[in-house]
Structures are given as structure tokens and as C-alpha cells.
Amino acid sequence: MALVESLQKAIDYMETHLFDTMTIEDIAKQANVSSFHFQRIFMILTDMSVGEYLRKRRLTLAAQELSSTDSKIIDLAFKYGYDTPESFSRAFRKQHGITPSEARKGIGKLQSYNRMVIQVNLKGAEPMNYRIVKRSAFKAVGIKREFQCWDEIGIPGVPEFWEEVNSNRESTKLLQLNDGQIKGLLGICSNFNLENNTVDYWIAAEHSGEKSDGFSTFHFPAAKWAVFEAKGPVPDAILATTKQIYSEWFPSNGYEPAKVASIEAYIDINPYREDSYNEIWVAIE
């Protein structure tokens, strides 16, 4: 349960510093995991991004203060991290459905997002097939693109990114470069930016040579990996297995995620088949 306790420590840190400027690195450090893994685990377990949680909590407290004090709206806007009263009012209305002025007058209802407490149910009903692999440093080559962070079904825009890479035959070129231990095409997330709520997503292939045909290079350090089977059509099988890894497997084992980007390995040439076989590689310590 060390992972759950670490996540709660990070949430407590966010609550203590709600009015301060925080980076994803500051928050992830409290959980002793990389910013990559913290953002992803948080999203998997809570169905919202870190930035979304902070925004909802701040606007919840702003609504309470509007209703119970005579503080000026402009002062509250600056206090809760908004550059102008107009941007504060837009965000306030988006969450609560009413303007700050209406909230002050008691017109309409307010939405309260309460302080979060992480609770994980260790069901263990579905068996998980995995293996442990020790690997020296290796690299992958591919195409990188920046996206907004996760929504409840994944990273918006990534399915279209895959369609583009497949249609222009860049995926075929990557497969031809694949000469590594991990077969198929790889999906890799890295470089989270809390302020902009963005993440880099790579479509890549493991490659040991120097020639990369113009693709960019992603380096993985030496690490121990837990490799999980993800059986079934994508993306559902990948998302379900990922959620099971962080909500069940980690809390039930003595491992924690290492500060290394995880890998979605799309091995099956037809990943949409009902019995499609693919893998998720998670570095552990």
C-alpha cells in the first residue's frame, strides 16, 4: 500500500499549497515518483488531471469565500490564481454554472469538490499475467507530438495521431527499423507540463542502430521492468490493463513505479481483434 500512501501525501501537499505556485515535479516529489508516473497514476485513480483537481478545489474555496465574506471579486481572482476578474469569472461560471456576482447574492447552486482521499479496492478478481525483465539502457526512434493531458478515456488527439502515422506509412518505416527486444510499435508518454496541462506522446519503435531515417530518438535508462499482457481490442484493453496495474497490482506488491516513462507495445498486426495480444512495460523499483 506504499503507493497509495505516497499519493495521499502528494494530495495533502497540494491542499497545503493551494494558493502557491506548484510544478508537477514539486507534487510528484512528495509521492517519490516521476512527474510522468504521478500524473498518469493520479488520472487513472481519480479520472481527472492534477491541473483539473487544483482548479476545482480552488474554485470550490473561492465560492465558499464569496458566500461568507465581503472580499472583492478582483481580490479573490488574484488570490485564486487568475490574472483578471474576467478570467476568474469565466472559470467560475464553467464550474458552478453561475457568475461570482450571482453566487454572492445567493442566486443558483454551487458545486463543491471536496478534499480528496485516495482509497483503492484490492479486488484481485481478474488474474494478471506479467513477467519481470531486467534491461540495460536502450533507445527508441519515432515521432513526437504535444497533446493536452488525459481526459477520462485517454489522451485527446492520440487516436488521430495513430491514424495519421499509419496512413502516411511512417508506421511501416518504424517497423522496419525495429531491431530490439520489444516488438511492434510503441506508445510513449513523457515530459508533463502542469502549467500548460500538456504531455509529449511518441509513436516509436525500439532501434539500436545509429541510422534513424530522420526520426527523433528517445533514450531509456537501465531498469527492471514489469511486462503485463493486455489481451483484447485496443484501446479498451490497454486502458483497462493500465488501470488494473495501478489500482490493483502495485498496491498488492512490494514494487513502486520507477522514474522512467512506461511503454505501450502494440505487437499484434491487428490490434482491434477480440483476442489481440499487446503489452504494457512499466519500470519498477
TrEMBL record:
<dbReference type="InterPro" id="IPR029441">
    <property type="entry name" value="Cass2"/>
</dbReference>
<keyword id="KW-0238">DNA-binding</keyword>
<dbReference type="Pfam" id="PF12833">
    <property type="entry name" value="HTH_18"/>
</dbReference>
<dbReference type="InterPro" id="IPR010499">
    <property type="entry name" value="AraC_E-bd"/>
</dbReference>
<dbReference type="GO" id="GO:0043565">
    <property type="term" value="F:sequence-specific DNA binding"/>
</dbReference>
<dbReference type="InterPro" id="IPR018060">
    <property type="entry name" value="HTH_AraC"/>
</dbReference>
<dbReference type="InterPro" id="IPR020449">
    <property type="entry name" value="Tscrpt_reg_AraC-type_HTH"/>
</dbReference>
<dbReference type="GO" id="GO:0003700">
    <property type="term" value="F:DNA-binding transcription factor activity"/>
</dbReference>
<keyword id="KW-0805">Transcription regulation</keyword>
<dbReference type="InterPro" id="IPR050959">
    <property type="entry name" value="MarA-like"/>
</dbReference>
<keyword id="KW-0804">Transcription</keyword>
<dbReference type="InterPro" id="IPR009057">
    <property type="entry name" value="Homeodomain-like_sf"/>
</dbReference>
<feature type="domain" description="HTH araC/xylS-type">
    <location>
        <begin position="8"/>
        <end position="106"/>
    </location>
</feature>
<dbReference type="InterPro" id="IPR011256">
    <property type="entry name" value="Reg_factor_effector_dom_sf"/>
</dbReference>
<dbReference type="InterPro" id="IPR018062">
    <property type="entry name" value="HTH_AraC-typ_CS"/>
</dbReference>
<protein>
    <submittedName>
        <fullName>AraC family transcriptional regulator</fullName>
    </submittedName>
</protein>
<dbReference type="Pfam" id="PF14526">
    <property type="entry name" value="Cass2"/>
</dbReference>
